[in-house]
């Protein structure tokens, strides 16, 4: 219960409730930090991240209607990383930019197409 100030400066009580549920089918999705989670329609795409000194370049998808996890790619065709960005463009492209691993900061750009399930490298224009 939290106290909030109402329209007339009066303290009002607000009840907030939520639920947690354990989702099946994700036993191989290891705990991680520094990953991205990007919503595309009814799917959430999880890319990369790290667990301690281990960095990932796997790509998972969660179907929010079926409540089901699937591993799309165990290793995407770029180096493992964490703390990258992943932005949805044109309704079906995940633009993955930068990130880091224990040895370097990445400045590369890759595009994952959620329809064709292919990854493309985007060269920099100079």
Task: Characterise the protein shown here.
By secondary structure, the chain is an all-beta fold. It has a single domain (32-121), classed as Thrombin, subunit H (Beta Barrel), CATH 2.40.10. Helix content is 0%, strand content 50%. The protein has strands spanning 2-5, 11-14, 36-40, 43-51, 54-63, 68-73, 85-89, 93-100, 105-113, 119-121. The strands form three sheets. It has a four-stranded antiparallel sheet, with no helix packed on it.
Strand order, main sheet: write it out.
3-4-5-6
Strand proportion, as a percent range, falls in over 45%
- The helix tally amounts to 0
Please name the CATH topology: Thrombin, subunit H
From the helix content, strand content and strand pairing, which structural class follows? mainly beta
* N-end to C-end Cα span: 55 Å
Shape: globular
Largest beta-sheet characterization: 4 strands, antiparallel
Name of the CATH class: Mainly Beta
Unreliable parts: none
Beta-strand segment tally? 10
Share of helix among residues?
under 10%
Radius of gyration: 19 Å
CATH architecture label: Beta Barrel
How many domains? 1
Average pLDDT works out at 87
Q: What order do the SSEs take from the amino end to the carboxyl end, as H and E?
A: EEEEEEEEEE
């Amino acid at each position: 219960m939290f106290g909030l100030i109402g329209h007339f400066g009066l303290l009002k009580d607000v009840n907030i409730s939520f639920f947690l549920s354990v989702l099946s089918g994700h036993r191989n999705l290891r705990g991680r930090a520094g990953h991205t989670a990007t919503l595309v329609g009814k799917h959430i795409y999880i890319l990369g991240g790290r667990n301690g000194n281990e960095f990932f370049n796997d790509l998972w998808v969660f179907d929010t209607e079926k409540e089901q996890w699937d591993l799309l790619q165990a290793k995407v065709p770029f180096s493992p990383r964490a703390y990258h960005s992943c932005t949805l463009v044109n309704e079906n492209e995940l633009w993955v930019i930068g990130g880091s691993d224990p040895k370097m900061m990445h400045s590369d750009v890759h595009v994952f197409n959620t329809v064709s399930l292919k990854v493309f490298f985007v060269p920099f224009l100079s």
